[in-house]
Amino acid sequence: MSTKTPPRRPRNKCSSSHLSCPSCAWYPSSSAYSTRTLGKASPPPLPLAAPPLAPVEGAATAPLRPPPPPPPPPPPPVSLGDVVLHSYWRSSCSWRVRVALSFYGVEYAYARVNLLADEQRGLSEMGQVPRLDWSDAAGERHSLTQSLAILELLHEAASAPGRSLLPLGPVPRARAREIAEVINAGTQPLQNLGHMRAISALAAKDQGSDAGRSLGREAIAKGLAAAEKLAAANRDERFCVGSHSSVADLCVVPQLYNARRFEVDLQPYPRLRAVEAHAATLPYFQAAHPDAQPDAAKA
Predict the structure, then answer these.
(1) pTM
(2) Mean pLDDT confidence for 184-196
(3) Cα–Cα dist 76/74, whole Å
(4) Distance set, CA 204 to CA 75, 201, 209, 226, 299 (Å)
(5) How do 109-112 and 81-87 pair as beta strands?
(6) Helix (H, G, I), strand (E, B) or coil at 278
(7) Could you report the per-residue pLDDT of 49-78, keeping only the tens digit for each?
């Protein structure tokens, strides 16, 4: 059986040189037939990318974004001069600050404030201790209240590599703050002298019991139980978090002191007692102990 070869068209009649002719199935460079079907049109060529349009005069254009502003300069270092701590010897909040001042080696003058005589009234907006006063590099005086805020200031002003009351890692640092707040926000305020006086005054009208002290005792037990569970997760039994003193230890140790004053049973809190026992061997805790303060009541 013979196969007829389709006739070849003259080149001068095929304007596309056989490459895009819809009726030509023969490529000059090959002796084989095209795979296209005779008489079938080839697919249109792919469109080329259109050139960018020239901007039309008078047409609205999108505004150019301004460059981002330069980053702000770093804040100047905090300078602590002529430091004065307004404190009461048995105030656990003042105790935290005394430990931090000793830990960072900041010299300060001790201003006695007798809470039993309400001398703290007018000392701050809340009428509480501690209050830290200092002069900056320009000689301007500043005051700061609330113990944890003061601890943060001392960290910014006086910490050094390898010597800080805030752990380096973000999780340990948050854990230390968590334990500190368990005491600072959830325990100590409920056994605060002013709070207990207000509760007892209200209860006395009804039954004459010391309801404020009872509430304080329950708050201390609850707060220590929470702190005990958190501290038990730390591998080093000497500290609440990590392997060195932190803001957590500074809050726990004074609270254990208060717990004994409130006759709270401390047997359920072995980890916290271990932290307290080790803190008693550290010079900066020893210097801050209530019995070492100039206004301490001597037995």
Answers:
(1) 0.69
(2) 81
(3) 6
(4) 53, 5, 6, 31, 31
(5) parallel
(6) helix
(7) 666 666 666 666 667 788 888 888 877 778
